[in-house]
Every structure is written in C-alpha cells, then in structure tokens.
Amino acid sequence: MEQQQITNITKQMKQALSEQVLLKLGEETGQCRRQRKVTPMRLALSLLQSMGSGRVETIADLRRDFNRLHGEEVQYKPFHNQLAKRSFPDFMRKLCANLMNTLADKVLGFKADSPFARFRAIYLHDGSSFALKDSLQKSFPGRFTKISPAAVELHVTMELLSEMPDTISLAADSESEVHFVPQASDMKGALFMGDRMFCIKSYLADIEQQGGCYIVRAKGSLNPTVRHAWREDGSEIMHWRDRPLKSLRKAMVREKAVDLDVRWAGTQELDARLIVTWDKENKRLRYLVSNLPRADFSLEQVGDAYRLRWQVELLFKEWKSYANLHAFDTSNASLAEGLIWASICAAILKRFLAHATERVFRVAISTRNVAMSVRGLLFELFDAMMGSTRRLKIALTDALAFLASNAQRSHPKRDQLCGRAKLGLRSEYAAA
Fold first, then answer.
1. Is pLDDT at 432 greater than 60 in this prediction?
2. Considering only CA atoms, which of 411, 165, 429 is closest in space to residue 421?
3. How wide is the angle at C-alpha 100 spanned by C-alphas 172 and 48, nearest 5°?
C-alpha cells in the first residue's frame, strides 16, 4: 500500500509540474517563444524551490538558485528579462491554478455522527493585504495612501476539507472585498463562513435559496427585529419578542449567550438565526448570523464552527512567513505580481507534501511544521524531477519519511478538546 501511494503521489507531481505541462503553459501565455536555458520548466521549478526554501530578498537570489539547481551560468540580465515579461504573472497564475486543481484532495472529514458531516464542502473566505514598492502605486493603489501608497490584497476562498485554496484573486488593495465573494450558486450543499464584510443580506439570502448554509460575523451596528429568543439552556425569553435588537443590548450582556430568530425587513429582507455571545477578551458582544437549523446545530456548535474560519488566517501566515509572500524591490508591476503567484505556488506544493505524508505514513502532520521543514527537501525533489520518474519516486519517499518523523502535529490531544477536532473534524488518513 505504501509503495502504491508513493506511485500515485509521484504521478500527481508529474501531472502538475511536468515539462510538457509547463511548456504548454509557457506557450499559451507567451512566456516561452523560443526555448533557451531559462525554459518554462526550469524557471518554474527554480522559483518554487527558492520561494519555498528560505528568505529571498532580491532577483539576484533567485538567479543564484536557478544556476545552482540546473548547473547553469545564466547571467543576471537575461534571467531578469524572463521575469520582467508582461506574460510572467499570467504564466505563474495559471501554474497556480493548475497546482490547485491537480494537488488538492479531500484530507479532512467529519465523523459520521457530526451534523457538519452533511456538507460536501466548507468554504472559508477572507483577504490578506501587504504593501509593495511605492513606485507601483499606479498599478496597485493602496487604501492607505500615506502609509502604503502601493499595496495588493489577495482574496482567497479556502476549502476546509482539502486544506487548500479553492480560488485566489489578486487585486489592488483599494478595491472592495465584496467584489470577490464566492458565487452563491457554488454553495449548494456547502457551508460558507466569512467575516463581517460579507454579512450582506441579499447575498446570504441567495446562498440559502441555492441550497447552501452560512455562518458570518456581523457588525455591532446591526438592528433586526427579534422574533424569538432562547437562552443557552434552551429556555425562551418571552418578553424579547418583536423588539429591535438595539433595545436589548444591556440584557444580552447579562445573559452572556443567546440564540435568536431575527428578521430584517425592507428591500433586503432576511430571516436568519443570530447567535450573540460575550467576547471576554475584547469585552464586547459578538454576533454570528447563520441559517443552520437550531434542531441540528446548537449555539455552541455554531460558535465552534466559526472558529474553524481561523484556518484561512493560518494559511495566510504560512504564505507570508514561509513562502516569501512580501514586497520585492522592483518597480516592474508584472515582475512583482509574478513573484506573488510564485510564492503561493510554493506554499501550495508544501501543503501537498504535508498531505502526502499523512497518506503514506498515517500520522497527523502539521502544515506549518512542513512549511518550516522542507528547505533542503525541495532542491532534492526538483533536481530529481528534472530526471527520471524513478529518481523522483526515490526522492519523494525520502522526503516524506523525513516529514513523517519531523513535522507531526504537536498537540493532537488538545485538538480534541478545543482545537479543530472538537466538532469531529479529523484526518482522512492519519490514525485516530
């Protein structure tokens, strides 16, 4: 079984990063017109190795890594010219899409008795922004013009059960996040979770109409009409009926946790469930709007489920801490954007290696620990990929064995009590 899994994983990597696939992407995007020393495959593999292996500060760092990986002596100018092409970001973006499509598998699932087991997918949506060199202000205007004149935001929908991004959009930081929200038509049989920006009544109504469910955080300024109210112990608060939410603020603080049926009237009408709890850390009320049926999902379960949205924040942290998602010292917009996509590609590949380790060795693996542990492994893998399938298979076996011993989850018992496993979420591969 172990050898068969290694064979399947080798095939997946070949499908995602083979010479034929990368050459086709290069020709389709115009990145490759004539094959010289910096071929699409050589360029892609060296960039992924650089971005995933350690801190990269300059284009010169990338060139040195290219020469080391491929045994070449490519000079700085011709190497820079390949990255400066207008086609470069399109090439890397399409490579990123290919990696997401080829390397994503279902790696997490809920226990059969969990109410969340009914969902075919759980989508976590958020954005993450960072500044670029000020001279890129025209191409990527930032929201905070004095502090960060040039900035980008990555709008990401992550699918929890695959632990991989499902869609990624890159835009100027000045663009509104709501333009990048997932289509409601894609939410049939799925659960959507988003931050306060996505508490859009018409959008939530569309998700429900399409057969999907949602949990989104809401701003404290909301003021629907309370139709029914229940305490955490299940007793109904009769005198709260048909009152505006704002009139009940003080009473909700005293209750600590309440489960409400609310209605927004007007042009954006919505009937929904509103979970209100006391946030001890920030000393304020927290509001979660949902359409999960109360009969199947308790107040506590809705709150615990929304905490799983933190997984997309951990994804961003991995990208910025261990995949060189940062501003490079360049005024070339195409080069800057292409390197952003290259860093995401490297991060996706490292998550795939984490999941592959679980498949082969049946141990619970930390994606963060893998992201920190593959510095030397990527060079060996890509060097082998330039050779035969047999070499790649041997290199993969060695790499996954190393990760199985050095990148396991640190606190599996804690996960059961208060972490992601509290709701019955568990690895599809790792032993219980």
1. no
2. 411
3. 75
DSSP state of 236: B
Local structure of 239: helix, strand or coil: helix
Tokens of 119: 């969902």
Residue 330 clears pLDDT 60, i.e. is over it: yes
Question: Which phi and psi angles does 362 have, rounded to 5°?
Answer: 55, 40
The residue ranges of DSSP E strands in 280-324, in sequence order, are 284-290
| Lookup: tokens for 65 | 């890594």
Q: How far apart are CA 410 and CA 367, in angstroms?
A: 11
Long-range contacts of 413-421 (CB under 8 A, 24+ apart): 420/308, 420/311
Rounded Cα–Cα distance for residues 354 and 346 (Å): 13
Span 27-34, average pLDDT: 89
CA gap 82, 216 in Å, rounded: 43
Closest CA to 309 of 152, 168, 127, 183: 127
Say what the pLDDT of residue 257 is.
95
Residue from 335, 336, 334, 311 nearest 326 by CA: 336
The Cα–Cα gap between 182 and 172 comes to: 18
pTM of the model: 0.95
Burial 223-249 (b: 16+ CB within 10 A, else e): ebebebbbeeeeeebeebeeeebeebe
111, pLDDT greater than 60: yes
DSSP letter, residue 408:
B
Exposure class string for 357-368: b at 16+ Cβ within 10 A, else e: bbbbbebbbbbb
Beta strand 213-218 with 164-172: parallel, antiparallel or unpaired?
unpaired
Residues 26 and 313: their CA atoms lie apart, in Å, by 32
Where residue 268 falls among pLDDT bands split at 50, 70, 90? confident
381 within 8 A of 395, measured Cβ to Cβ: yes
Length reported for the chain: 432
Q: How many CA atoms, within 13 angstroms, populate the side-chain half-sphere of residue 379?
A: 14
Q: DSSP for 136-157?
A: GTTTSB-SSTTT-SBEEEEEEE
For 280-318, the pLDDT digits (tens) are 888 999 999 999 999 999 999 999 999 999 999 999 999
How high does pLDDT run on average in the chain?
93
**Neighbouring C-beta atoms of residue 285, cutoff 10 Å:** 16
* CA distance linking residue 248 with residue 244, whole number of Å: 7
Answer yes or no: is pLDDT of 217 > 70: yes
Q: Which residue, 18, 155, 180, is CA-closest to 99?
A: 18
- The answer to whether the beta carbons of residues 326 and 130 sit under 8 Å apart is yes
Amino acid letter at 364? Answer: A
